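input
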Amino acid sequence: MGHRHDQDRVWDLIDSIKFAMLVTHDGEGDELRARPMQAHGDREEDTIYFLTDRRHHKDDEIQINDNICLAFADTSRQRYLSVTGTATVLDDRARVRDLWEASDQAYWDDENDPDIRVLRVRPSMAEFWDSPGRIVTSVKMAAAALAGTRPKLGENRKVAL
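output
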């Protein structure tokens, strides 16, 4: 499996899991903060987009330190992805309209809300754990424990993006 296959797998995981914990540094830079966000991956642009609200702290934190981490998890299928990259907050009304979904009305009345911003993440590194499935994993873990060996929990790769 080559580098391109690994990159494609990262984008496939982003597209299928859809939600990530966005981890930023607080205003002082000493503490880490995480919050769930809906990801919109664009593999052609090598970019992950989010809709965000300019009134929230994450935007201020990104202005101070633009290094972020995204943690994706699909526990039902034992698939996990960590992406590190650089974030930028944009006031891009056209992109807001492109990304807008009906579920966003839980946060804003419509896509014309002046507080909506686009959070653009340019990924630089990704690491994924891709398991063959919960039952198979459990069986392998139990078999490994009985044999005194470490279980094979599926693929784990670091991918430069």
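quick obs: The chain has one domain: 3-160.
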